[in-house]
C-alpha cells in the first residue's frame, strides 16, 4: 500500500511519501537505542514536564491537527477536534498520576522477614524502544494512549502508523519535538507493512503494541513471538448493545445512534450488534431506524455533517459487501442498506460514503452475524429474556467491550459475571479514559492500555531483595 494522503471525501491524492530506505531506518533505530540510554535515567518529574509541554502544544495546534486528521481519514471536524482535546487530557493525566502508578511497591513486613531479607521491594523499570503499530481510525488518540504511559515509564517510542495517515504520523513526531523531547525519544517510521517484521526482529526493539485488525495482530504477534518479545494487542470488536425492559428508551436510542456512528462507524469499540428485549423492541426499532436515517451525511469539514466518508475505498466496498450478503440471505434494511443514496454519496463525487444502515432478521449464516462491520451499519436483534441476550452477546469471536441498558442491580451483576468482554458499560456507551484499563478478550486481543495496567505493560517488574550482612 502506498504511503499517501488521499482525501476520502473526494478520492484525491494530495501528497505521497517515500518510505525510509534501509540506511535511513538504521539511523532511526540507532537513535532510539541511544536516546533510551539517557532517557531511562531521567526522573518522573522530568518526564511529566515533557508530557505537559506536549499537551500544551497539542492545545495550541488543535485546529491544525484536527484538519489534518479529517483530511486524511474523513471523520467530522468536530470529532477530530474532540480527539485532539482527549489526547491532551491523557498526556496531562499520565503526567499527574504516572509516578504513583509505578512507584516502588513494598510487601508486608511479615513476608519480607519470611523471605529471609532485611528489606525487599518491587521496582518498575523501563524496557527500551517500543514499536507501536497504529491504525488510522483514531490516528491521534491511538498513538497518545500508547506514548503517554510509555514515555512516562522511561521507554522511548517508535511509531509505524497506518499508511493512509502519513501527515498525522509526522505531525505527532513534530509534536514531541516542539515539546522539547530529546532526539530519538519519539520517532515516526514511514515504512511499509513489509518492513515491520524486520523492525520487530531488530534487537534494539524490545516490545510491540498494536491496535488494528485481527489479521494484522496475528502477523505482528507471530513475528514478535518468534523473537520472544512482549506484545499488547487491541484488535477488532463487534460490541453488543443490550436493551432490557427497565431501560430509559429515549436515552438508549439516542446513545445507540452515537455509539454506532461515532467516527463514521469506524471504531473497534463502537456498538455494532443491538440486542433488544421483546418488551421494548417495537418502540426501540422504529425510533432507532428513524434516527439513523435522519443523520446528515456529507463533507466532514462542514459543521453540520454528522457522518463523513469511510476512510478508504476498500473499507467502503468491504462494508457494502457485508450488507449485500445479509440482504441476499433474507435480512431487511430498516434504514439505508444501499451502496449509495444519491449523487452526494456516490463515486460521482469521488468520496467513499456509505449511508447509515439498520439491518433486521439477521441469521447465523450471514457474514455480518460474526464479522465486524466497520462503518455505520447496525444489526438489530430481538430476544425474549436476559439469558437469550447474554448468549447472543457472547455469540461472537470478539470480546472488546459491551453496553447494557438496565436499572436492575441483579441484571447488572449477571451481565458483569457472564458477558465475555473487556468492559461492561451500563446505561451509557463504551468510551476509553486514561483512568480505566482498556482491552479485550477472545479475538479482540490481549493486554491492557491506559490506567496502571497500561503503564506497567512495558515495564521490567523487578524484584529487589536485600539480605542480612
UniProtKB/TrEMBL annotation:
Coiled coil: none annotated. CDD domains: ALDH_SSADH1_GabD1. Gene3D superfamilies: Aldehyde Dehydrogenase, Chain A, domain 1 (3.40.605.10), Aldehyde Dehydrogenase, Chain A, domain 2 (3.40.309.10). InterPro entries: Ald_DH/histidinol_DH (IPR016161), Ald_DH_C (IPR016163), Ald_DH_N (IPR016162), Aldehyde_DH_dom (IPR015590), ALDH_GabD1-like (IPR044148), GABD/Sad-like (IPR047110). It holds the Pfam family Aldedh. SUPFAM superfamilies: ALDH-like. Keywords: NADP, Oxidoreductase. GO terms for molecular function: aldehyde dehydrogenase [NAD(P)+] activity; succinate-semialdehyde dehydrogenase (NAD+) activity. Residues 3-464 form the Aldehyde dehydrogenase domain. Belongs to the aldehyde dehydrogenase family. This is Succinate-semialdehyde dehydrogenase/glutarate-semialdehyde dehydrogenase. It comes from Kitasatospora atroaurantiaca.
Amino acid at each position: 500500500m502506498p504511503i499517501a494522503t488521499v482525501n476520502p471525501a473526494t478520492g484525491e491524492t494530495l501528497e505521497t511519501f517515500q518510505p525510509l530506505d534501509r540506511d535511513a531506518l538504521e539511523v532511526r533505530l540507532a537513535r532510539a537505542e541511544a536516546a533510551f540510554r539517557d532517557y531511562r535515567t531521567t526522573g518522573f518529574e522530568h518526564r511529566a514536564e515533557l508530557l505537559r509541554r506536549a499537551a500544551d502544544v497539542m492545545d495550541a495546534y488543535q485546529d491544525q491537527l484536527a484538519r489534518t486528521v479529517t483530511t486524511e481519514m474523513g471523520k467530522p471536524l468536530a470529532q477530530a477536534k474532540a480527539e485532539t482535546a482527549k489526547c491532551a487530557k491523557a498526556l496531562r493525566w499520565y503526567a499527574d498520576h504516572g509516578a504513583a502508578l509505578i512507584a516502588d511497591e513494598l510487601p508486608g513486613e511479615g513476608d519480607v522477614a519470611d523471605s529471609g531479607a532485611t528489606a525487599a521491594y518491587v521496582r518498575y523499570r523501563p524496557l527500551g524502544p517500543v514499536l507501536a503499530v497504529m491504525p488510522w481510525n483514531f490516528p491521534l488518540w491511538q498513538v497518545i494512549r500508547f506514548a503517554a504511559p510509555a514515555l512516562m515509564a522511561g521507554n522511548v517510542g517508535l511509531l509505524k502508523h497506518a499508511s493512509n495517515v502519513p501527515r498525522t504520523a509526522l505531525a505527532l513526531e513534530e509534536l514531541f519535538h516542539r515539546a522539547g523531547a530529546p532526539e530519538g525519544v519519539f520517532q515516526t517510521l514511514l515504512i511499509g507493512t513489509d518492513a515491520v517484521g524486520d523492525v520487530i526482529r531488530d534487537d534494539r526493539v524490545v516490545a510491540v503494541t498494536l491496535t488494528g485488525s485481527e489479521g494484522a495482530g496475528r502477523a505482528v504477534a507471530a513475528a514478535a513471538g518468534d523473537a520472544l518479545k512482549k506484545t499488547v494487542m487491541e484488535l477488532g470488536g463487534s460490541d453488543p448493545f443490550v436493551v432490557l425492559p427497565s431501560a430509559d428508551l429515549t436515552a438508549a436510542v439516542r446513545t445507540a445512534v452515537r455509539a454506532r456512528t461515532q467516527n463514521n462507524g469506524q471504531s473497534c469499540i463502537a456498538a455494532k450488534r443491538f440486542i433488544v428485549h421483546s418488551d421494548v423492541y417495537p418502540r426501540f426499532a422504529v425510533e432507532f431506524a428513524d434516527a439513523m436515517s435522519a443523520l446528515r451525511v456529507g463533507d466532514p469539514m462542514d459543521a453540520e455533517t454528522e457522518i463523513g466518508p469511510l476512510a478508504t475505498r476498500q473499507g467502503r466496498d468491504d462494508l457494502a459487501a457485508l450488507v449485500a450478503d445479509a440482504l441476499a440471505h433474507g435480512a431487511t434494511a430498516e434504514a439505508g442498506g444501499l451502496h449509495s443514496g444519491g449523487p452526494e454519496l456516490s463515486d460521482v463525487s469521488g468520496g467513499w460514503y456509505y449511508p447509515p444502515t439498520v439491518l433486521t432478521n439477521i441469521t447465523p449464516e450471514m457474514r455480518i452475524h460474526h464479522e465486524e462491520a466497520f462503518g455505520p451499519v447496525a444489526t438489530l436483534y430481538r430476544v425474549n429474556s436476559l439469558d437469550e441476550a447474554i448468549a447472543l452477546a457472547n455469540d461472537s469471536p470478539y470480546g472488546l467491550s459491551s453496553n447494557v441498558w438496565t436499572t436492575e442491580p441483579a441484571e447488572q451483576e449477571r451481565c458483569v459475571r457472564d458477558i465475555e468482554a473487556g468492559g461492561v458499560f451500563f446505561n451509557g456507551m463504551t468510551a476509553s479514559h486514561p483512568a480505566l484499563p482498556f482491552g479485550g478478550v477472545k479475538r479482540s486481543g490481549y493486554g491492557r492500555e491506559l490506567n496502571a495496567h497500561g503503564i506497567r505493560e512495558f515495564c521490567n517488574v523487578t524484584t529487589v531483595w536485600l539480605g542480612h550482612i
